[in-house]
Amino acid sequence: MKYLKYVLACLCMLVAMPSAAQQERKNIREGNRLYRQKQYQQAEILYRKALANNKSNPQAAYNLACALMMQQKDSAAIVQYESAAKMEDNKLRRSKSFHNIGVILQAHRMYGDAIKAYEESLRNNPKDDETRYNLALCKKMNKQKPQQQKEQKEEKKNEKQDNKDKQDEKKQQEQNSQQMSKDNAEQLLNAAIQKEKDTQQRLKKAMQQPRRKNFEKNW
Predict the structure, then answer these.
(1) Distances (CA, A) of 115 to 24, 55, 72, 150
(2) Angle at which helices 111-124 and 91-107 pack, to 10 degrees?
(3) Which of 14, 94, 197, 206 has its CA 20 to 30 A from that of 110?
(4) What share of residues in the chain are helix, strand, coil (percent, to 5)?
(5) What is the pLDDT of residues 65-114, one digit of tens each?
(6) What is the pLDDT of residues 142-164, one digit of tens each?
(7) 0.85 cut: is pTM over it?
(8) What are the φ/ψ torsions at residue 188 (nearest 5 degrees)?
(9) Distance between CA 175 and CA 180 in Å, rounded?
(10) Distance between CA atoms of 154 and 10, rounded to whole angstroms?
C-alpha cells in the first residue's frame, strides 16, 4: 500500500508539472530514441529544443554534445560537453563529459589538451580504467610529438628538395630539347648553304670549260 501511495504521489507530481518541463522531457526521450537509431541530426534538433525549454539541463547538454560528436562537429561538441560538466552535480556523469572531450582532442592529436581533459575526468571518477588508458597513451604520444614534428619537418624539406630537383631536371630537359632543335636547325641551314655552294661551283666550272663546235664532215 505504501508503494502504491508513492506511485500515486509521483503521478500527481507529473500531472502538476508545467507543460514546458513535460515538453522538455519528451524532447529528450524522443531525441534518445532517434540517437539510438543513428539519426543524429534529428536527435540534435530535439536536444536543442529541450535546452530551449531549460538551459540548465545537463542531460540535454550532454546528449546534444554526443549527437554533435557523432556528426563530427567536434568544436561545437566540446562546447556542449564543457557546458554539461559545469551544470552536472553528479561526478560520474561529469567525468563522462571530460572523457569525451579528451577523446575528441586526442583524435585531433592535441595531446596536451587531451591529457588535461582525461586528468579532470579521473578526478571525478578515479576508477575509470578506459580514461586512465587513454591518458597514458596521450602522455606517450605527447613525448613522441617533438620527434614526429622533426621528422615531418625533415620529410617536408626532402619533399621540397625533390620537387625542386624535378623542376630543375625538367628545365634542363627543356633546355636540351631547345638546344637540340637549334642545333638541328643550324645543321639543316649549313647543309642548305653547302648544297648551294656546291651547285654554284658546278655551274662555275661548267661555264669555264671550252665549248666545241660540231662540223659536218663532207663525204
Answers:
(1) 35, 29, 21, 22
(2) 170
(3) 94
(4) 85, 0, 15
(5) 999 999 999 999 999 999 999 999 999 999 999 999 999 999 999 999 99
(6) 998 766 566 667 677 778 887 88
(7) no
(8) -65, -40
(9) 8
(10) 68
